[in-house]
Amino acid sequence: MIRLEKRPQPSRAWSMATPLVAVLATMFFGGLLFAALGKPPAEAIRTIFWEPLFGEFSFYYRPQLLVKGAPLVLIAIGLSLGFRAGIWNIGAEGQYIMGAICGAGAGLAFYPAESFLIFPLMVVAGALGGWAWAMIPAVLKTRFGTNEILVSLMLVYVAEQFLASVSLGLLKNPEGFGFPGSRNLQAWDSAHNAELIAGTGMHWGVVAALIAVIFAYVLLNRHMTGYHIRLTGEAPRAARFAGVNPTRLVLFCLGTSGALAGLAGLFEVSGPSGQISIDFNVGYGFTAIIVAFLGRLHPVGILLAGGLMALTYIGGDIAQSNLQLPAAAIQVFQGMLLFFLLAFDLLTNFRIAIGKPEVA
Amino acid sequence: MDLSAINPVLLIASLMVAATPLLLAAIGELVVEKAGVLNLGVEGMMIVGAIAGFATAVESGSPFLGFIAAAIAGAALSILFAILTQFAQANQVASGLSLTLFGLGLSALMGQSYVGVKPPRMGDIHIPVLSDLPVIGPILFGHDIILYFGIALTAAVWWVLKYSRLGLVLRAVGENHDAAHALGYKVLKIRLMAIMFGGACAGLGGAYISLIRVPQWTEGMTAGIGWIALALVVFASWKPWRALLGAYLFGGVTVVQLNLQAAGVAIPVEYLAMSPYLITILVLVILSADKSSAPAALGRNFHASR
């Protein structure tokens, strides 16, 4: 008979290998899914994972990898801090939207002035917007003990309605012929989050994502706060005795992840998407949850996972136009990835033993 | 603005319709949580139930078969969660989230060819004399069978949890799985059954949305109702009758908000549409002080070797 034996210590080797095994399993079962949809499975997988990197038009797709990956990494880094400590911010999508609205709003207040100060102001406003939105579940949790998962999630739906409201009202382009949506920030030099080096996809959001990775790495490995985060996640009772202030930790983790999600929203709205519109958000806040887990809640892992997830987005787009693969198939693919990751994590903490249990 | 256009009888009748998907999902999750498992995948199971029920009803022409298919689909999806959390010992929060993300994608994929299709209608039952009574008739006796099923289910769950041996064992597993295991109860088996029951209920709730409440299919049409159902379990302090009360309160908020929109009240539509979510947060804040009735083992995994 097959049994599970708890390992005395989590296996480091399996911890590193699990994401790879999960990706392979997802490729296999994703292939089955594509076959069930009547698409050639091997070609679909190749289109998703190979075409964007080494295919005929890869010169166009490679920069897109940075554009799509940056917001995912930025948000996932913030989420991972909280997840490590058992603080579950699930509402990053809402913080992303509010960051974009506040940042774009702060800029649009000065339209059509040109000044090098406008963009930095927008960045600050974007971060503050996301931070403030995340402070709602944080304060409710610390003051009233309210569940942060449900509150942060409810706030996503509130933020979506608020986005609809400002797209149709407060931030609507007065010269937009009545169409919903704000002015196009790409067309206004002072507010445009343009490519820093033409043709590379490198914009300020990518820079911010890289800084966030380094910041998180240093924080977790060299700083007291990072130590407290790890301790709280691994041994909550011991953390209390070690003098960890849980209130401060909740405020810090939710606030940081909110600010990073807000930044991601601002960089997106002032760059790739260009304007506040009813549906400019495309679920990065939710996909970032997968990125955080796939990256093992480790900054470097998240960087790699963000790249991989960006690849599935871009490859998915190509598969959509070349093979008429439905867009939702990629969403299923990403969900599957998280499933397999969680399932194979079993091997990190348990050993599969065959035979009868020994009597201790 | 013309508030006199709002008919109180129709308002109460539609309130009960709006409350039913919430009630079904919440009762299912209540049982799951009583068994000590926190399944955050309600939204995912609901949306998969919504499309599975819709597709089956359209293809077979029978809404009733649709509801059965929805319950099966919800339960099937919940088995994935059960495998992750009960056998692979995965974190329950992360597993529930992955269930929701997967379910949203899967439903969008399954529903592609059903956008804009009209499902067969489930007729309201008509009881002679009773249904024809003024005021009381349309409120109490003029609904579809699933609505009454939801109320009956609430009563059944209340009875089973309170008075039956099965309910006692279920609660024991939820309060202290180690003790229940030591007494010889099959913790994993009981939890698996509870999770599947929760999945089936969430599936039914989803199908109620796509077949009766808004008879059509659109991607992401559950729009957070599954999450509100989770909040409702907290609101109900894990008591079935309070879940019914809560579902009717939230149903009331939703319906009043929609009626105000239709009546053209001076508040912008978006702010009215926010209100159910804001009120959920408010209710969570008011009730979160009292956690005494939460099952003690809620969210903790069980492994026999410890």
Question: Care to describe what's here?
Answer:
The complex is a heterodimer of chains A (360) and B (306). Chain A is mainly alpha-helical and 360 residues long. Helices cover 69% and strands 3% of the residues of chain A. In chain A, strands 1-2 form a two-stranded antiparallel sheet. In chain A, α8 (204-222) packs across α9. The longest helix of chain A has 27 residues, at 58-84. The mean pLDDT of chain A is 85. Chain B has 306 residues and is mostly helical. Chain B is built from twelve helices and no strands. The longest helix of chain B has 27 residues, at 8-34.
Summarize the entry for a quick read.
The complex is a heterodimer of chains A (about 350) and B (about 300). With about 350 residues, chain A is mainly α.
* Overall mean confidence score, pLDDT of chain A: 85
Name the helicity range of chain B: 55-70%
Query: Compute the gyration radius of chain B: what is it?
Result: 19 Å
How big a fraction of the residues of chain A is strand? Answer: under 5%
The main pleated sheet of chain A reads as:
2 strands, antiparallel
The strand count of chain B comes to 0
The secondary-structure class of chain A comes to mainly alpha
Low-confidence stretches of chain B: none
Order of helices and strands of chain A: EHHHHHHHHHHHHHHHE
Radius of gyration over C-alpha positions of chain A, nearest whole angstrom: 22 Å
> With helices defined by DSSP (H or I, 4 residues minimum), what is the helix count of chain A?
15
**Greatest interface and its residue counts?**
A-B, 51 and 48 residues
Order of strands side by side in the largest beta sheet of chain A? 1-2
What is the number of beta strands of chain A? Answer: 2
Based on Cα principal axes, name the global outline of chain B: globular
- Average of per-residue pLDDT values of chain B: 84
Question: How big a fraction of the residues of chain B is strand?
Answer: under 5%
Order of helices and strands of chain B: HHHHHHHHHHHH
**How many strands, what sense, and barrel or not for the largest sheet of chain B?**
none
